[in-house]
Design goal:
The structure is a homodimer.
Chain A: H1 19-31, E1 37-44, E2 47-49, E3 55-64, H2 75-92, E4 96-106, H3 112-129, E5 133-140, E6 145-155, E7 170-174, H4 180-183, H5 185-188, H6 193-200, E8 205-210, H7 215-218, E9 227-231, H8 244-249, E10 256-260, H9 266-276, E11 282-290
Parallel strand pairs in A: 4-5
Antiparallel strand pairs in A: 3-6, 4-6, 7-10, 7-11, 8-10, 9-11
Helix pairs in contact in A: 1-3, 2-3, 2-6
Amino acid sequence: MKHARIFSSSSRGSVSAVGELALIGLIRRWLGKASPKAPRGIGDDCAVLRPARGRELLTVDPVVYGVHFDDQTAPAEAGAKLLRRNLSDIAAMGGRPRAAVLALALDSRVSLAWLRGFFSGLAAESRRHGVPIVGGDVARLPGAFVATLALTGEARARAVTRSGSRRGDWIYVTGTLGGSLRSGHHHAFEPRLAQGAWLARRREVRSMMDLSDGLAKDIAALTPRGCLAAIFGPSLPRRRGATVREALCDGEDYELVFGVSGRCRRAPFERSFRRAFPRTRLTCIGRFAPRGAVPADALRLSDYRGYEHLR
Amino acid sequence: MKHARIFSSSSRGSVSAVGELALIGLIRRWLGKASPKAPRGIGDDCAVLRPARGRELLTVDPVVYGVHFDDQTAPAEAGAKLLRRNLSDIAAMGGRPRAAVLALALDSRVSLAWLRGFFSGLAAESRRHGVPIVGGDVARLPGAFVATLALTGEARARAVTRSGSRRGDWIYVTGTLGGSLRSGHHHAFEPRLAQGAWLARRREVRSMMDLSDGLAKDIAALTPRGCLAAIFGPSLPRRRGATVREALCDGEDYELVFGVSGRCRRAPFERSFRRAFPRTRLTCIGRFAPRGAVPADALRLSDYRGYEHLR
């Protein structure tokens, strides 16, 4: 671990040394061009934005020290992960991100050097995606660090929901699954914004979501009533070194899983995707089958559990 | 204290007894009509909203156990306070609230009875203002409870920022100040949405904000460069039993403070406000004076400090 520790042993190098107003000043400096001036950015009671075009999207996700990152995670990676998690939710609707607000709740012993690293990672990711950080709040939270980001986006064509799948639809997934923590993918992943927006323009794509708690758990949300997801183990795109169980249960894949009309001609669909995204793996992993007619060689997903929070 | 405790001594009555998915089911039941179905509400990767009319407003504020409320606060009041704090930010821009998302970070020992109370208060406030809770996230946070709400709104006429005041402008405040904690006002206040929207339609109102950290600290954000806020102690509208110092420093007033053109005819302006809001006190507390020309009987605000976070 070569980076700063999150909690400082000296009060001089910690948040308590500067207080709230000076800290907000530092945050604005650290964010730099990622933070426009009020009223379009930090510094007023609310941020003021132009309205969304098409449908507006809204999501919120935190990173919690000890849960979503730990002492092994570089602060810049924790900051980037905070925005990436939310971008992945926008991607899952086929949308474009617009602007974000950030609520920090933190112990006053949090190190300023660590926090600078956190914001440098957040700012770099913010600039890369053109998503300004337009406002926020800072509160005291003894013994902990929680950064919560709310992200607004827009879906100009349509917002792809989780609920459009029908019996017989094909199940596709982008990228590879499993081993997210071990490989560092859990913070270093690339949100599938371009792929999500492309898929939203294809009528044969009927439902979509991002994988955060593992395919075995998450797929239930896409599965039509009266059906099961018939997934074939050998077809699962696994990260190097990941087992089938890990691909199903590890979570934090941040890949897109989506349903495609069972009447779709798969080969041309897949060719178009690969032309658009030659470096993104695309795999058909199964289809939604009626409960009584699941092929015998499909995985029994009930034998696997995804990531369970709060237990 | 007649209400449930936030941390349960039995694991049966706590969040850990139900796990994440069942908890989200409970939250949806507790929210009831305050929570529409996906994709307009909870249950998809993002909430899908119609775009804002006029300008979009976006804000985020948390309630943290031990900071914004404690064991003396009834859980329903803590839940209502979470929405009210954010509504007050929308009011301060003269806007209307639209929809909210909620991120919970909590210890798995948090009591389900307490949490039900929290959500009943949040839901009642949400219904009262027509602000649906459209999505969120639940994460584990050992030893603590943080609920962060992001609220989107719209300003159809204009968004009143903090930066429009000029030398000689009058300073007005709604309601009374000080003693917020003692009186319970810190959670039971009424966000000044109707007043804020009315003021946004009056051209003579040039700047506005809500009071959260105390007038002595907050007024700096409205004060034009080269000026000081000349405030007259006897004119300060104090809550019953509050001293001048408390009115300036206690914080959590959640009243509107705003600047009105120095050329405005005050009497007709005040009469119109009182006709619109006969039960809301309106007080002219001073004006923005050039640094060299502050009347001798004005309060020296540098002798007072507002609420300082993180110290």
